[in-house]
Amino acid sequence: MIDWSGYIGLILQGALVTLQLTVLGSALAVVMAFTAGLARVSRFFAVRALATTYIEFFRGTSIFVQLFWVYFVLPFAGITLTPLQAGVLALGLNVGAYGAEVVRGAVKAIGREQREACIALNLTRYQSMRHIILPQALPLMLPTFCNNAIELLKGTAVVSLISLTDMTFQAQVVRAQTGNTLIPFTVILVLYFLMSWVISRSMRWLERRMTRGLDGVRA
Amino acid sequence: MPDPIIRIDNIIKRYGPLTVLDGLSMQVMPGEKLALIGPSGSGKTTILRILMTLETISGGHIEVDGAQLYHMPGNGGLVAADERYLQRMRAKIGMVFQHFNLFPHKCVLDNVTLAPMLTKGMARPVAEKRAMELLDMVGMADKAKSMPAQLSGGQKQRVAIARALALSPKIMLFDEVTSALDPELVEEVLNVMRKLASETDMTMLLVTHEMGFAHDFADRILFFDRGRIVEEGKPDDIFRHPKQERTQVFLRKIIAAGHRV
Q: Residue B94 and residue A120: Cβ atoms within 8 Å?
């Protein structure tokens, strides 16, 4: 008879790593999404080109390859990262590239009329973006950001390949040691689902909060 | 005789192969109330948009309140105006749009106070006091805390007028401000504008299809067709005794469509 409590504890430790990766990765992704997304609508060609290059590169290559580059290839350039740092960097940059297009799309969706009102009221470009465009664009971004965050959560499983002891890694350890697949993989299945459920719930709460008083506005 | 507050000199505006304004020149005196009428596509709205710097120009010069609008001094002559220069010029001009363009995420009061606080560094209490006076003038003081979505079209437009006035522009541009309104809401907006015209010495340019209102409101009417001013004059002359055939045809069509003159 196997004593499962120790093994479950192992998986829960892994869950913490997964959680950490998700939170830090999402934080980096949000920063990258706004930086690159706003750069995409810049009036300076060089800024736009730089952002486009970043987005196309990280969307166009696999997260798996990116992770291996960050962890195994960067050291040759003198940059050595811990597995966690490498995981956060690869996930954040990858998901941030998708998020950037979400930011750009939402900003573009706030129409010409609002921009023209800003000009007529003599606001600077920065003031228009900060006070008029972004507050209206943010609620439009949230549903897709929610998708991206859940994708990122599930994407964290690839870090087990660079020996980071996340949930999936631990489940494999347990499977190897006990010969049982059903229990560890059912446990992480439920845990992944719970985590993504929390993400989607909190995003929906945020969306409701942000659109309060705005019902039926978009005519 | 004072200098004109707006001097438009040989303006050309092209959209690709299409020429919207073809060497247009006109002048507006300080305090003058001007109505721009004419068929759609005749360039009258484009003139307002150019004055608000919402468009670029393909040629010509515009002087507003003694300074070039699209050009600034530099290199021993005139160069294209930069953003900072445009900002200084825009402060002289306010605009009210056909579709109100209120900020949907801000309440009525914040819509009015936002620009004075951001562009003039006005403190919130000062800005709010002034905003309430303006909202009172347009009859919207009791809706100060409402969101735009809760207002009717006529109410939105009155708020938009207060919002533009909050920056105390010397020149106000009204671009078909009643065209998007239900017929029964037109009058409340026109009333506000009548009041504004009689109580202030602001220069006002109005693009409209409300011929009756143009007649009562304006000191001078400009009839536009195909990017040119075909005829101009006092309201009575234009509406009762138009000289140009194109003006006559246009006015006949408008009257046939049931508009009051």
A: yes
Q: B146 CB contacts (<8 Å, ≥6 apart)?
A: B107, B108
Pairing of strands B171-175, B203-207: parallel
For chain B, domain boundaries: 1-92+171-261, 98-168
B197, B204 in Cβ contact below 8 A?
Answer: yes
Helix (H) or strand (E) run with residue B175 in it: strand B171-175
Q: Find the closest chain A residue to B87 by CA distance.
A: A122
Is residue A118 within 8 A of residue A190, CB to CB? The reply is no
From B90, B101, B119, residue closest to A117, measured CB to CB: B101
User: What is the number of other CB atoms lying within 10 angstroms of the CB of residue A62?
Assistant: 10
Query: How far apart (Å, rounded) are the C-alpha atoms in residues A60 and A54?
Result: 10
- Residue B81, pLDDT score: 86
Residues B197, B221: contact at Cβ < 8 Å?
no
Looking at the complex, report in whole angstroms how far the Cα of residue A116 sits from the nearest Cα belonging to chain B.
7
- For B90, nearest residue in chain A (alpha carbons): A122
Pairing state of beta strands B220-225 and B203-207? unpaired
Hey, is the C-beta of A218 within 8 angstroms of any chain B C-beta? Answer: yes
Residues of chain A with pLDDT under 50: 216-219
User: Which one is the CATH code of B1-92+171-261: 3.20.20.210, 3.40.50.300, 3.40.47.10, 1.10.3720.10?
Assistant: 3.40.50.300
Burial class (CB in 10 A: 0-12, 13-18, 19+), A172: middle
A113 to B101: CB separation less than 8 angstroms, yes or no: yes
| Residue A217 belongs to some domain of the structure | no
Choose between B229 and B1: higher pLDDT.
Answer: B229
In whole angstroms, give the CA distance from residue A149 to residue A23. Answer: 9
For residue B239, pLDDT over 80 is answered with: yes
Nearest CA in chain A to B88: A122
| pLDDT tens sequence across A28-52 | 999 999 999 999 999 899 999 999 9
pTM score of the predicted model: 0.86
CATH number at residue A143: 1.10.3720.10
CA distance B176 to A114: 17
Q: pLDDT tens digit string along B60-77?
A: 999 999 899 998 888 878
Residue A12 lies in a domain: yes
Of B104, B115, B149, the CB nearest to A121: B115
A216 assigned to some structural domain: no
Q: What is the ipTM of this complex?
A: 0.92
Residue from the list B83, B115, B149 with its beta carbon closest to the beta carbon of A217:
B149
- Count the domains in chain A: 1
